[in-house]
Specification:
The protein has seven helices and seven strands; from the N terminus they run E-E-E-E-H-H-E-H-H-H-E-H-E-H. By secondary structure, it is of the alpha/beta class. 33% of the residues are buried. The chain binds guanosine-5'-triphosphate and zinc ion. Its EC number is 3.5.4.25.
């Protein structure tokens, strides 16, 4: 496959509840989607940059759905990056692990009939996870990031980025609240998608466990 290219078209200052970021808008040669980087501080030429590669989840990120952990992971990542004073959240428009919102909603209906998140995708004729991380790698390169501390529970994300030439120095876990609505989803991610989740099913109704903020890079 030909290597994809990205170019930053513009960026703008975005003050948030956590601190100030710049939203960088990218175009690319692979698809027509608006992939974004939300950047705090100076990351050009930096090593061990705190990075979150976040896949779009309209239901979790915007609507606060409790079916998944995305919204909380997004908030926590921004909080930690702002507190560190530098870092990047790459926002990839790969809704529904790449199958799009329409198919994700259909997958949710299948899950309400008893199928898990993997089988629901397969029944709809999709792969379990159709995401691609090449554009995330190109965006990190464009920003001049030299190596990353990656906020994720997903080992496939680490291997994909590494295969794309990004040096991943360490992984920082990003576990969210376990509740009645996301328990089966999180269990499936741990059991069928090899996500590194520490939760115990008996914690189903336990309040959010606050995880330690990552140590500064230096
Ligand atoms: N197809 C499908 N996509 C889902 C479902 N629940 C969440 N998603 C999508 O999954 C993506 C997030 O992926 P996750 O597997 O939750 O997490 P991850 O990004 O692989 O791993 P982390 O870095 O640990 O968050 C987003 O694009 C969501 O829209 C679901 O039940 N079915
Ligand atoms: Zn989600």
């Amino acid at each position: 496959m030909n290597k994809a290219y990205v170019s930053q078209i513009t960026s703008a200052r975005i003050p948030t509840a956590y601190g100030e970021f710049r939203l960088c808008y990218y175009q690319n040669t692979l698809d027509h989607k608006e992939h974004l980087a939300f950047v705090a501080g100076n990351v050009a030429g930096a090593e061990r940059v705190l990075v979150r590669i976040h896949s779009e989840c309209f239901t979790g990120d915007v609507l606060g759905s409790r079916r998944c952990d995305c919204g909380e992971q997004l908030d926590r990542s921004l909080e930690w990056i702002a507190r560190r004073g530098a870092g990047v959240l790459v926002y990839l428009r790969q809704e529904g692990r790449g199958i799009g919102l329409l198919q994700k909603l259909r997958a949710y209906n299948l899950q309400d009939q008893g199928y898990d998140t993997v089988d629901a995708n397969l029944l709809l004729g999709h792969g379990a996870d159709e995401r691609d991380y090449s554009l995330a790698a190109r965006i990190l390169e464009d920003l001049g990031v030299r190596s990353v501390q990656l906020l994720t529970n997903n080992p496939a994300k680490i291997s994909a980025l590494t295969a794309e030439g990004i040096q991943v120095d360490s992984r920082l876990p990003l576990e969210a609240t376990v509740n009645r609505d996301n328990l089966d989803y999180l269990r499936t991610k741990a059991q069928r998608m090899a996500h590194l989740l520490q939760f115990k099913p008996t914690q189903a109704n336990a309040p959010f466990t606050k995880h330690d903020e990552p140590e500064p890079a230096n």
